[in-house]
């Protein structure tokens, strides 16, 4: 295996780099002056790509490596990979589902609690010695009507957690889930938003879910409503979200993902009803180690002619 060329498109978890380097001939794209400079000399050596949400595999990348056999993404989301092109060329694709589900669901609940209970603001209040008077009252999260967009692995884990807070759960997905028991299904996201106090976005990003949260959905949620997004930034029409928050047409937002990461709209930075995290939903040591193991195990399985552990294609 040591002679098999594997290219990482950008820096990821240190342990992933170490594991890949100990098993394969690892190339790190960021050590080269440009993609063109790298592919000019090494294009024929690359049989596997390891990508993530920051730098994926578009048509140009895929076409640049004539001997490419597999793309293994250090993520569960697939929106940064041209799956159609991979399928056309018979290139395998694997991702890292399940191992990150708990962390991302935890982050969604943490964001909801942080917005309603103003955790970052009250932390600043104590640390900056402002505790000379009582802190203003905040808003209760327990019992709020929670609407989940995308009742997949992560959406279901969020539902389980929110239910433990006494929140009635509703959801919108492409199809109704018979296993979702008491959760109410809305075939239309507008109806979900109109009947929710907290809207949590947890679906995958595709052509149909691009800007699935638009002005109408935001207005249906209303001035007391809160949006939490741990899916992808492109699920929400960001300028519409910003103006709704600025104009008080939306109550608050907890956002882990943004349309043009790492750029965040300036207006969001000064808003007290908004809590922002830098796309860290799955970023715990434990989960990142598990994700790294899965990336490596998929590559090993492929090159040993065994079935992939978590195949996409
Ligand atoms: P999953 O199990 O595949 O669930 C995806 C969900 O999206 C399904 O419920 C699916 O509904 C729904 N969906 C897809 N297309 C839809 C559409 N057109 N309309 C409505 N719903 C639609 O994936 P997962 O493991 O839960 O992950 C979900 C997403 O979370 C990932 O794709 C990724 O973008 C994001 N994520 C973010 C972080 C972070 O750090 N913030 C970390 C990991 C993942 P059906 O079941 O009805 O098809």
Automatic annotation (TrEMBL):
The gene is LOC101510512. This is glyoxylate reductase (NADP(+)). CDD domains: HPPR. It comes from the Eukaryota. SUPFAM superfamilies: Formate/glycerate dehydrogenase catalytic domain-like, NAD(P)-binding Rossmann-fold domains. Belongs to the D-isomer specific 2-hydroxyacid dehydrogenase family. The keyword Oxidoreductase applies. Residues 109-281 form the D-isomer specific 2-hydroxyacid dehydrogenase NAD-binding domain. It comes from Cicer arietinum (Chickpea).
């Amino acid at each position: 295996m040591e002679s098999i060329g594997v290219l990482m498109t950008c820096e990821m978890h240190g342990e992933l780099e170490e594991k890949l380097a100990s098993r394969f001939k690892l190339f790190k794209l960021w050590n080269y002056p440009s993609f063109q400079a790298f592919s000019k000399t090494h294009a024929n050596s690359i049989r596997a790509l390891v990508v993530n949400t920051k730098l994926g595999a578009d048509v140009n990348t895929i076409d640049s490596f004539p001997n490419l056999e597999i793309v293994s993404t250090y993520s569960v989301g697939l929106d940064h990979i041209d799956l159609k092109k991979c399928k056309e060329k018979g290139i395998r694709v694997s991702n890292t589902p399940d191992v990150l589900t708990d962390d991302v669901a935890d982050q969604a609940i943490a964001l909801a609690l942080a917005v309603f209970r103003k955790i970052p603001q009250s932390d600043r209040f104590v640390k900056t010695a402002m505790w000379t008077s009582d802190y203003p009252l905040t808003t209760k999260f327990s019992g709020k009507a929670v609407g989940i967009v995308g009742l997949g692995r992560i959406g279901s884990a969020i539902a389980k957690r929110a239910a433990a807070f006494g929140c009635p759960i509703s959801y919108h997905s492409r199809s109704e889930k018979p296993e979702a028991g008491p959760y109410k299904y809305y075939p239309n996201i507008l109806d979900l938003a109109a009947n929710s106090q907290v809207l949590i976005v947890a679906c995958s990003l595709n052509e149909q879910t691009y800007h699935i949260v638009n002005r109408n959905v935001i207005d249906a949620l209303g001035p007391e409503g809160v949006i939490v997004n741990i899916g992808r930034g492109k699920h929400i029409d960001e300028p519409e979200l910003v103006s709704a928050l600025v104009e008080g047409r939306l109550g608050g937002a907890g956002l882990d993902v943004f349309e043009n990461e790492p750029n965040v709209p300036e207006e969001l930075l000064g808003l007290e009803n908004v809590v922002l995290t830098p796309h860290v939903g799955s970023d715990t040591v434990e989960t990142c180690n598990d994700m790294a193991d899965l990336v490596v195990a998929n590559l090993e399985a492929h090159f040993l002619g065994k079935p992939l552990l978590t195949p996409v294609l």
